[in-house]
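Input:
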Amino acid sequence: MPNDIGHSASSKRREDVRFLTGVGNYTDDIDLHRQSHVVFLRSQVAHGRLKAVETTAAAAMPGVLRIFTGADFEGVGGIPTGWQITSRDGEVMQEPGHPVLAQGKVRFVGDMIAAVVAETEDQARDAAEAIELDIEELPAVIDMKAALAEGSPKVHDDLTGNLCYDWGFVEDNRDAVDAAIKAADHVTTLELVNNRLVANPMEPRVAIGDFAPGTGDSTLYTTSQNPHLIRLLMGAFVLGIPEHKLRVVAPDVGGGFGTKIFHYAEEAFCTFAAKALKRPVKWTSTRSEAFISDAHGRDHVTKIELALSKEGDFLAVRTDTHANMGAYLSTFAPAVPTWLHGILMAGNYKTPLIYVNVKAVFTNTVPVDAYRGAGRPEATFQLERVIDKAAREMGFDPIELRRRNFIHDFPYATPVAVEYDTGDYDATLDKLLEISDHAGFEARRDASAKKGLLRGLGINCYIEACGIAPSNLVGQLGARAGLYESATVRVNATGGLVVMTGSHSHGQGHETAFPQVIAKMIGIDENMIEIVHGDTANAPMGMGTYGSRSLAVGGSAMVRATEKIIAKAKKIAAHLLEASDADIELKDGQFSIVGTDKSVAWGEVTLAAYVPHNYPLDDIEPGLEETAFYDPTNFTYPAGAYSCEVEVDPDTGRVTIERFAAADDFGNVINPMIVEGQVHGGIGQGIGQALLEGAVYDDNGQLLTGSYMDYAMPRADDLPFFQVDHSCQTPCTHNPLGVKGCGEAGAIGSPPAVVNAVVDALQRAGLDVTHIDMPLSPARVWSAMNS
Amino acid sequence: MTDVTLTVNGTQVTAQVEGRTLLVDLLREDARLTGTHVGCDTSQCGACVVHVNGEAVKSCTMFAVEADGAEVTTIEGMANADGSLSTLQQAFQDHHGLQCGFCTPGMVMSAAALLKENPKPSAQEIRDYLEGNICRCTGYHNIVKSILAASGQDAGAIAAE
Ligand code: FES
Ligand code: FES
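Output:
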């Protein structure tokens, strides 16, 4: 298959029309007949023993249908985890139970204690406030290192302590890495925090459970990135509903960024309660509730050491990370600090020896799981920060030090278990220097200085692993699911196509980009193709959208299914043309006999497939519908280089982003407009992490940043225009489209650029500042300057 | 319960509401106009912006009873009379000013109010005006470009400066 399938101009997004006119169909826009509403009573203490939940008075309040507590879920399954990590000592991770409603103990502020179902949301809220709780408060476990100390209170009484796992990677390299670090000319050490974030898609989560007594079928409408995964996890592990009796629908979804991957207890509750009450049950999260119930992201505390020769060759990397799991294991949580983080520690560099140690820790906080980039931003941040620090310590130009260590020969097997298929890191770095007007920096710095401001420049590279993932590989690594994707292509008699895919679109523009690929393959107008997703009732089993996998994996499944369609259509065409199918070619929607002017049109062939009067019925069945499952053979490895210029106000410590540029290699690109939009959004979130955002708990486990008053979301006036480029393209060698994925790059590549830039500004001003932890608030920058 | 009557996108709507009912709830539930979204509970995100008597208002900050007798325009009332996208809506599509679409109704309503006040805003004026509208998807780059383009300016050139 040639790599240029689907390459085309930036088709405008067809989904925009409904969103721009207010007729989208988000989950909260759905109201079912006889719908009731649930409000959850959530714990206001971080850790406590639940002694009594008194609901009698509340249950008698107007409109209340029923109040559920943990006791109603005895015998029901708990919320499962999708990965099992094995510790250095060969033991599997500790995996606590996670009941739908709290049983015995509450373990974080936001843990669900009771659920009030009433005729209206206001009635449910009023009754929830009338429930009386008797909770014996216990000391909260918040700090990860304290959580592992001898004698720390335990989040889960039935576990041996608060350590979930202690993972070493690659364990066999440990001694060699230690020896290389001991013997090296120079070792740069950096201790840093990768700040805890809240994903904050603008649409809060919503779940509506429905039950049909006539058939015994359950339906869940939910704000999910992967409805099939929810059906599998909730059906098989929590509620015991076979998949053929359970339908999960995720209609228009208002952003996900990872936090809508996971199976949440609210979904299980609504499905369960709808059956118990024989009425639809709807839950709409408030934003305040989202802060204490959506899985958070990041929250790593890391020490990284980089060993170098005196010439600047990287000899070894050793890292020691504590990763916060929160109070329970969310769906992908164990995989994020391990496989999605450790395998990226080579970065773009030929470091021969790498050892990564990660201790995952339970605390009395909201569960932590994948957020845009998931493990890869954490890997990139520490590596690109320590390289910058090493360059300064040893007197190298940070750009040249990186170049010196770039990988040039592909495929390249890293010492951390993955093989990069293609890349050209010099090309993206050169492109970055060009589009960012690197040469003009000094003049801009002088101009800033005249205004009394300190200008700094930060540059970094990144690589990520996308298109997850080969099922057999992830199975060995502890995944409890496969990571293929599926597509069914249904051709109608009149020639139009419906493509049903397990990939889910919640901002990525699949409804536009996917048809571009198929239209090109067949040679028909892209408006003849409709993408259907987000409903387990029509799409075949698929794994959903995350890890920048939709086009690389979902798109590949679609290509495979379309290839089958074309192969069958050629047989039909050959029959109609009285030729051999080997002699038929398809071009611009016409099947013709090679070397002749005899042809039949796409629509004649599709019609024949469904009206098979003149048809090779002895050879092939009527109809034109094919399904393919695509299981990738490797990850894809997008990579690139980012630069940031900041101004720091020396009087206040305030940082402003003056210029930001990104040069990415995503392999082949289908819709450049959409790709650029993905990068912009990722950069916005990365700058948010670097400058503004941070979820902060006090020692008692109260979330101090629980609303948009306290959690600083990037606003339009916090960000500049971005210069982005994706013209450096080394196509992926192992998927049919040659695509690599672009959804997370911006969030991965941008935080180190910002911090490198601020440190650069301060160092150029003669200040001995080597690191500041994110977010770089004015207070933090000012203190670093004045300490 | 109180009766309120208002005009929404030119059509009269009457509803019985509680004192605590917000305008956004009346629009979404009683008028079944679900284009106006709720993204927060602290009046910060701007997903709920509508026009009340010609002014941009966060409809989560106004009680339904306060809107009695008002003329309200929501995102559903922004297209041209023939149903085609207005210049502003078209600019959002042309410049990829939306991804998930959740913030979009509020962005369009705020941008329309800005352009009424200031028909040729600079990029910085647009960014300042949108301070009360949060978008998590776009990094605002293409939203600002869309509004520049809708006001007849060369968005591509300005963004590349
Ligand atoms: S919902 Fe009105 S400002 Fe957020
Ligand atoms: S387009 Fe998704 S929040 Fe703005």
